[in-house]
Specification:
It contains seven helices and ten strands. With 250 residues, the protein is α/β, with parallel strands linked by helices.
Length: 250
């Protein structure tokens, strides 16, 4: 079995016991709070078949789907079978996307975010969870629990790096922070802006897990058309005005 697959299998076991189970509970708490102002018709969870919150009770969004590589039998949520790097979903379709630790075990996390941006509607919400690489003690315990050489397989995606990626893809960051298995442990991260970048965080935020909530910005393609129309209007020739000629009567 490939190392990445072994890591995912071990992770599913870890979420069911001790610290993993406690963190999973806090994950649902943070997700429920993040979904309070998310509306629309379609919510997509990408991967993490071990994570199956009751979206019908914590979200007002009507339809919920989970993207899987293979069909999973023991789940009640509707499934879409496909590759996260090449989503079988039309552009500008999904209202809310949930990534529960999806990027941590992906070989191409940036491509996944590009696909997420493509399928989301303007003003759609992205809710992203991951492991906090700065919380070294927690990651060490996690890796020891998972085994199978997982330290080489986990992606160490810092909050600042994810912030920059999402900003370049046209997202506005609405919430960013870390949390642990303890109740009420969410701690918002203060970002120090440097020009248009916000990749520096003044302190290493504590907490084994991190969360980012982002909104896809609205583009205005109609502006291009209106500018073109205005330019055409400015360069068009004025209509000839009728003139009255006096006839000479001899």
């Amino acid at each position: 079995m490939p190392a990445m697959s072994r890591a995912k299998t071990s992770l599913e076991y870890w979420w069911q016991h001790d610290e993993g189970a406690a963190l999973g509970h806090q994950l649902e708490v943070q997700l429920e709070q993040a979904l309070r102002d998310c509306f629309g018709y379609y919510l997509l969870q990408m991967g993490a078949s071990w994570f199956h919150p009751d979206y019908a009770s914590i979200s007002s969004i009507k339809h919920h789907f989970i993207l899987q590589r293979q069909l999973v039998i023991n789940t009640s949520i509707a499934q879409i079978i496909g590759d996260k790097r090449h989503l079988p979903i039309m552009t500008d379709t999904i209202d809310t996307v949930v990534l529960p630790f999806t990027l941590d075990f992906s070989s191409d996390p940036h491509q996944i975010l590009r696909e997420v941006e493509r399928i989301m509607i303007p003003e759609g919400r992205l809710i992203l969870f991951g492991f906090n690489p700065w919380y070294l003690a927690g990651l060490k315990r996690l890796k020891q629990s998972l085994g199978y050489g997982v330290p080489q397989q986990l992606n160490h995606l810092a909050l600042g790096r994810l912030y920059d990626w999402l900003t370049l893809l046209g997202f506005d960051i609405e919430q960013l922070g870390t949390f642990s298995a303890r109740p009420h442990s969410f701690r918002a991260a203060r970002l120090a802006r440097m020009g248009t970048s916000a990749s520096l965080i003044p302190y290493p935020p504590k907490g084994l897990a991190c969360m980012i909530k982002a909104r896809k910005q609205v583009t205005h393609p109609a502006t291009v058309g209106s500018l073109w129309t205005a330019r055409r209007t400015r360069v068009s020739m004025p209509a000839a005005e009728p003139t009255t000629r006096n006839k000479h009567v001899g």
